[in-house]
């Protein structure tokens, strides 16, 4: 009797120990690749010196300062190319081999890319840095596109919010760890910076060892492979219970819905009228993620702080402080995003970032007139990070699943993530040149972008919290869907083969499949008299 009570509690309740373990293992690729994004910040000068010395050994001439800055900007940005490509192919790979084995493949790719970068000094080749970082982009894009759905499709509805926020917290944790490991006293020095870059191998290797022991996604087994026995076995492992009937019922219900709902592909998304508004919102949010000013602080903070007069240990501590505040902000966002409207949080967070970016530029301009302003810069940089964590980044990962219906969710995620990495590449490659030409005024550009995004959101972004897609679309003025009206005198009834029909009664036969597929009333020409 106690065992049955425990199983019933587990079935109805929250996270089993196995589910927590599976989540941690599946998400290992996310902090590993997020660390890979941020770890180049601390040893930036050492990497530039390595590039220069390598070129001088080869040709007898070092790079010019502008060439080195441009190459470093490209190195930071090139990860976005691989990630963008991976985000477009993730769904196809997942359908082919399942998300579990796709994640294993991603871990292998990540190890290869990280090894190429870490061994660049041994090979005396700065090209290895570029190739390795592009390869890491593939692992990053696949990891972000595969790991969250792998876990969320195992979760019950009340667990999905926590699973989504765990993704964001793991990313922010990795950024902070990368900054701490980048201290000169630890790995951010001439002798150990290749080890700093190579650290993700530990996390990826751990995932490669443990992930084969995790179950395949039950939904994939039942929907794609028609393997009910395998799905039941996987569900029992995840739930820690023999009774998984409710979970099977939910998956079968999704299967029934998918048979009457036309799947919207990546390219079809752009020509479907009802998807126009959410698509524009997803593209704008994806591009804005990296042009709001946050990346200017996070990835170039060491250089920025030195340029505004914060040097030595103060610079390193300020840099790691941005990562620490970002982490705390993301943890706080796990509460706020479930309590307040998505639109409200996004608008407030973006507006705050814009204001702080303008203040950051002003303090940089006048720092020579007042020495205390360099410390104001540090505080403002921290405020930019916490505003970003509490608003734009948290809402971005949550709202994407609410903007699109089930039939377009995969394509919608792909477009948004692709735009985010396009913005990442453009931003990281352009920022060094912007800093060189515009200096302190660079952050005014970010402030202007944030102001435009606030206006965009106020007028175009819907509030998605506790609202279905059909409820949102009613206010979007889509003629194909919102203006369809039933004929006023038609009654709808279910007619069986034994139903007696009165003479002179008109019966209109609806094609249920086409009705569900297109959202419109497709009327057959069959009229029974």
TrEMBL record:
GO terms of molecular function: hexose transmembrane transporter activity
Keywords (A to Z) from UniProt: Membrane, Transmembrane, Transmembrane helix, Transport
Principal location: membrane
TM annotation in the entry: 20-38, 71-90, 102-124, 130-151, 193-214, 279-300, 320-338, 345-363, 375-400, 412-432, 438-461
Subcellular location(s) per record: Membrane
Membrane topology qualifier: Multi-pass membrane protein
Domain Major facilitator superfamily (MFS) profile, first and last residues per copy: 20-465
One term under GO cellular component: membrane
Assigned protein family: Belongs to the major facilitator superfamily. Sugar transporter (TC 2.A.1.1) family.
NCBIfam families listed in its UniProt record: SP (TIGR00879)
Name of protein: Major facilitator superfamily (MFS) profile domain-containing protein
Species for this entry: Candidula unifasciata
């Amino acid at each position: 009797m106690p065992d049955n009570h425990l199983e019933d509690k587990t079935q109805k309740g929250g996270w089993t120990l196995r589910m927590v373990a599976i989540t941690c293992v599946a998400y290992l690729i996310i902090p590993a690749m997020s660390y890979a994004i941020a770890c180049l910040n601390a040893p930036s000068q050492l990497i530039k010196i390595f590039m220069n010395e390598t070129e001088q050994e080869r040709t007898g001439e070092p790079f010019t300062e502008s060439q080195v800055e441009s190459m470093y900007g490209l190195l930071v940005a090139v990860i976005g190319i691989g990630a963008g490509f991976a985000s477009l192919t993730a769904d196809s790979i997942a359908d082919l081999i399942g998300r579990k084995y796709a994640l294993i493949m991603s871990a292998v790719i990540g190890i290869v890319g990280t090894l190429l970068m870490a061994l660049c000094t041994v090979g005396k080749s700065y090209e290895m840095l570029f190739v390795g970082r592009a390869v890491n982009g593939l692992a990053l894009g696949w990891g972000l596109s595969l790991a969250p759905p792998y876990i969320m499709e195992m979760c019950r509805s009340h667990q999905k919010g926590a699973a989504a926020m765990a993704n964001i917290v793991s990313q922010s944790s990795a950024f902070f760890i990368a900054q701490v490991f980048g201290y000169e006293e630890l790995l951010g020095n001439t002798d150990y910076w290749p080890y700093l870059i190579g650290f993700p191998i530990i996390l990826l290797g751990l995932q490669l060892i443990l992930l084969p022991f995790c179950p395949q996604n039950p939904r994939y087994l039942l929907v794609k492979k028609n393997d009910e026995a395998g799905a039941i076995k996987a569900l029992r492992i995840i739930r820690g219970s023999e009774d998984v009937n409710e979970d099977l019922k939910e998956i079968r219900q999704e299967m029934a819905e998918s048979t009457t709902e036309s799947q919207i592909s990546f390219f079809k998304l752009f020509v479907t009228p009802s998807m126009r508004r959410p698509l524009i919102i997803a593209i704008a949010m994806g591009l804005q993620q990296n042009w709001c000013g946050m990346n200017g602080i996070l990835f170039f903070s060491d250089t920025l702080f030195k340029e505004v007069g914060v040097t030595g240990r103060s610079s390193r501590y300020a840099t790691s402080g941005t990562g620490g505040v970002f982490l705390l902000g993301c943890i706080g966002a796990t509460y706020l995003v479930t309590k307040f409207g998505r639109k409200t949080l996004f608008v407030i967070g973006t507006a705050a970032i814009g204001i702080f970016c303008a203040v950051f530029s002003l303090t940089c301009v006048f720092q020579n007139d007042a020495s205390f302003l360099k410390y104001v810069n540090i505080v403002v940089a921290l405020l930019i990070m916490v505003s970003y964590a509490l608003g734009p980044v948290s809402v971005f990962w949550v709202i994407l699943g609410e903007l699109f219906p089930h039939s377009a969710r995969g394509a919608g995620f792909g477009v948004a993530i692709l735009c985010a990495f396009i913005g990442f590449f453009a931003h990281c490659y352009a920022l060094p040149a912007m800093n060189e030409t515009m200096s302190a005024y660079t952050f005014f550009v970010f402030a202007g972008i944030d102001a435009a995004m606030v206006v965009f959101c106020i007028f175009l972004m819907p509030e998605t919290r506790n609202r279905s897609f059909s409820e949102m679309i009613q206010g979007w003025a889509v003629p194909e869907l919102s203006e369809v009206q039933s004929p006023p005198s038609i009654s709808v009834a279910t007619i069986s083969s034994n139903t007696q029909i009165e003479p002179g009664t008109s019966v209109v036969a609806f094609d249920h499949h086409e009705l569900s597929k297109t959202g419109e009333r497709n009327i057959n020409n069959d009229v029974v008299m």
